[in-house]
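User: Dehydrogenase, Brachybacterium phenoliresistens:
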Amino acid sequence: MADLRAGLIGLGMMGRHHARNLHALDGVELVAVADAYGDPHGAAQGLDVLPSAEALIEAGIDYAVIAVPTAFHKDVALTFAEAGVHCLVEKPLAFDIGEAEEITAAFEAKGLVGAVGYIERYNPALQELRHRLADGQLGEIYQIVTRRQGGFPARIADVGVVKDLATHDLDLTAWVAQSDFAQVAATSTARSGRTDEDMVSITGRLQDGTITNHLVNWLTPFKERVTVVTGENGAMIADTVSADLTFHANGENPTNIWESMASFRGVSEGDVIRYALTKQEPLRTEHEAFRNAVLGDASNIVTMREGLQTVRAVEGVLESAREGRVVELG
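Assistant: Predicted structure for Dehydrogenase:
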C-alpha cells in the first residue's frame, strides 16, 4: 500500500514539531506544507512553503494537520472538509461553541475522520492511567484533581490561560472518567498586565457524579503537570512532566473502635507502586493514532465531538468566572 499523503498548515512553535513527526512517521509522507507567514523554524525541510489550505489541497493530500492560531481553525477546517480531506486540528477545536459545532457537523456530514490534538492524552502516564481505570483498579472514581502551573509562554498572544492550558485539563478529566462535565464554577484573575486571565481555579462535577478541581496558571516559577485520581481502592498520580504513574493503595489497618464508630469508613496508607512505563514522545503517539484512524482504526483519537464538548466546558468556565456563578452544562 502506498504511503498516505499528508499536508501541514501552520509552521509556528507547534507546527514545527508536527512537521518533525510527520517526516518520521511510518506509512506517511509529508508532501506539502503551508504558512502565509513563511517558515521561521526551518520545518519544511526542502518542501516549498505554500500560501494556503487551497494550495495544500491542490497538492493532492489524503489528510491535513491544522496548526494555525485558534481564530483561523474554522475557516481552514471547513475548507478541508469541503474538499473531503481528513483533519487533525490542534487544540482547542475552535474559538467558541458555534464554530466548534460548525466544524464538527461538516466533518460528520462528509464521513471524514476529524480529530483534535490534545497531546496530554497521549502522555504515557495518562495512557496507562486510563487503561488501569478501565480495568477497575481504583473501583469507583470519587474525585479528579489537576494542577497545571508554570511561567508565561511567549508564544501566547490571542487567548488566556483557560483556552490555552485549562482546556487540556477539562479534556483529560472527562476522558479519564469517561463522563462529560455537568457543571463548573470558576474564579480567575489577570496579574501579568494582559487583558486575558492568567490564573484560574475551577471546581466541577461530571455527569457520573465525580467531583473535580483544577488549578491552572502562568504565574508559577516552576512547571507542574499533575493529575490525581482518587477512588474507592486508593489513588493514582500521573505526572506528565516526568511521564510517571504512581499508585497509592488503601491500607488495611484494623483498629479497636467503639460501636458508635464502627460504621465510619476511612482509609490508611497502603502500598505505593511506581509503574515502569515505555516513554514514547506523546506527539508521536498522537500522529500514529491519527494515521491509524485514517486507515480505519479510530479507537485512540480525540474526536471532534469530544473536542466540541471540551469547548463547551471551556466556555462554561469563562462564563462562571465572568458572572460569579455555577454554570450548568447541558
